[in-house]
Write a structure and sequence with these properties.
- The structure holds 2 protein chains of 2 kinds.
- By secondary structure, chain A is an all-beta fold.
- Chain A has strands spanning 5-7, 10-13, 19-24, 31-38, 42-50, 53-57, 64-68, 74-78, 87-94, 104-105, 109-113.
- Helix content of chain A is 0%, strand content 53%.
- By secondary structure, chain B is an all-beta fold.
- Chain B is 0% helix and 52% strand.
- In chain B, strand 7 and strand 8 (64-69) form a beta hairpin.
- Classes of the chains: A mainly beta, B mainly beta.
- Chain A binds chain B through residues 31, 33, 35, 42-43, 45, 48, 50, 55-56, 58, 88, 90, 92, 94, 97, 99-108, 110, and chain B through 31, 33, 35, 37, 42-47, 50, 52, 91, 95-97, 99-110.
Chain lengths: 114, 117
Amino acid sequence: KAGVTQTPRYLIKTRGQQVTLSCSPISGHRSVSWYQQTPGQGLQFLFEYFSETQRNKGNFPGRFSGRQFSNSRSEMNVSTLELGDSALYLCASSRSGGLEDTQYFGPGTRLTVL
Amino acid sequence: AQKVTQAQTEISVVEKEDVTLDCVYETRDTTYYLFWYKQPPSGELVFLIRRNSFDEQNEISGRYSWNFQKSTSSFNFTITASQVVDSAVYFCALISISSGSARQLTFGSGTQLTVLP
């Protein structure tokens, strides 16, 4: 069974630009979560989608948005990039979004903002 | 509020030594799940184990073992006879009923384990 895939793996952007990251969950998984990882703040929750609905969002500005498609694939978008958005963005999927479900992570997209 | 503390920032051991990674958590909930993930240099978080708050039975899986103690709010992870391939950052994480349907993991800051040959 294929794992969580994320594209692209690496991105270099300049301040003010926008970026879209993609995540394909494990087959049969309907919940997708996004996390940002930085050396200073560690791993922080961005948002979670289930059945195309955003169920919760972490403490990030409105420049960070996402969506989920009917096939459970998810995208996140960051507009008006800032230097501080440089990070590893990790996507995780789980089967049904239940509390007991395990989240399985993809390899991440490393975003560098210049 | 939930919190996970991994006081050990970096640990360095010589191959074949045993090493224990500490994790202390805080939650007001009685129903919660604890996790350990491993992050090798490639960046992907690899799931290692999940334990729920009602199951304090310790577990051994090969060279890995976990010690869950609710009385001290700790969920420690031990690698026996460490190998160079164990070198990675290890994260402890918590999710509880307060998260509701949010599926929001709260992570510790991670412990960088370096196993020297």
